[in-house]
Each structure stands twice: as C-alpha cells, then as structure tokens.
C-alpha cells in the first residue's frame, strides 16, 4: 500500500491542488482469470469456486464507512472463476496461455494445453482508482474431460475451496443480482457469450 501526494500539471502551466492517492500493488501486477466451461445437454455450464477472501470479509468491520448498507453479514467466501497471478517468467501471450493452463490444473483439476486457452479480449483493471493489477480474461472448454483432484498452490486461502458447475446464464444472473460479487467473473461470462454463434 502506498499513499501518494499528487498534483496535476496542466498544459497552461497551472497546477491542481495537492491530493492523496492510495495505491495497492500486489507482488505481481498482472493476473489471468479463466472461465472453465463445458457443453452439456442444457447448454453451456461454467465452473466457479468458493474461496476464502479475508479482504472482503473484514469489510463488515468498517460499516461506518459504507454509504450504502451492505445486506451481507460478511463475505468469508466469495464465488469466482479460476484465477492467478502471472509469474516473472510468464512473458507475452505464450506465457499468459501457459499460466492460464497451469491455474486451471491447479485450481480445477483439468489438464489442458496452453493452446487450448482462448483469450477473451483486452485486459482490464478491477478498480483503477486504487489497484494497479490488470486482469487478462481467458476461457477453456473442458467438455468430455475428467478432472483430477485439484492440488491448489498450498496457500491457506485455498483451504476448503468448493467447486460448482452451473448454467452460464444462472451464474451470470447471480453476478447481476450481486450473489456473485466478483467483477472478473461477470466480465469473462459476458465476453464468452458475445463470442458464441
């Protein structure tokens, strides 16, 4: 976390007043989010994960800072899609696809090849006013594949993770209702749907 004191310099030579900007930098600045999907009798189904999310959980301790009351009693677990930080060796599109395939195996148990990963357009910021992390959305079709038991990465954040398969439209509606309060999940869902014939 960095707290910066900034001032805008304008083309006419004038300056804005000094203002504060809080910046949260993670150890790695780029991440990949992978929508794992399959084709079933009822259409597209997607895999989500329920993960421990302490940052979302401890939001409840700052109710005085909320201008809109939050009906949730706490977000100990948040439902989202497979995701992970890019490592220093994950360079370019090849590295992005390789990392996506590794995260799918680690978090969902499916062994996919990097060339099976479908990139879903440009990367995006989740909260550009404070977070420097950019997310690269991707998807992979695992129709007909059998998963192994996901190994995880050994992080305590992955303890007790639960996997769920549901219709893509059911998951999208859950995002829009706020039952799945994860932006990268909704972005990946809408981008994949836009590419469907």
Give a description of the structure.
The protein is of the alpha+beta class and 197 residues long. The chain has one domain (27-195): Nucleoside Triphosphate Pyrophosphohydrolase. The protein is 22% helix and 29% strand. It is built from four helices and ten strands. The protein has helices spanning 54-57, 92-108, 168-177, 183-195; strands spanning 2-6, 19-23, 30-40, 43-52, 77-80, 82-85, 118-119, 124-125, 134-141, 162-167. The strands form two sheets. Strands 3, 4, 5, 6, 7, 8, 9 and 10 form an eight-stranded mixed sheet that branches. β8 and β9 (134-141) form a beta hairpin. α3 (168-177) crosses α4 (183-195). The longest helix is centred in the middle third of the chain and has 17 residues, at 92-108. The chain is globular, with a radius of gyration of 19 Å. The mean pLDDT is 90. This is ADP-ribose pyrophosphatase. InterPro entries: NUDIX_hydrolase-like_dom_sf, NUDIX_hydrolase_dom. Residues 27-188 form the Nudix hydrolase domain. It comes from Pseudomyxococcus hansupus.
Features of this protein?
197 residues; alpha+beta; Nucleoside Triphosphate Pyrophosphohydrolase; eight-stranded mixed β-sheet; 4 helices
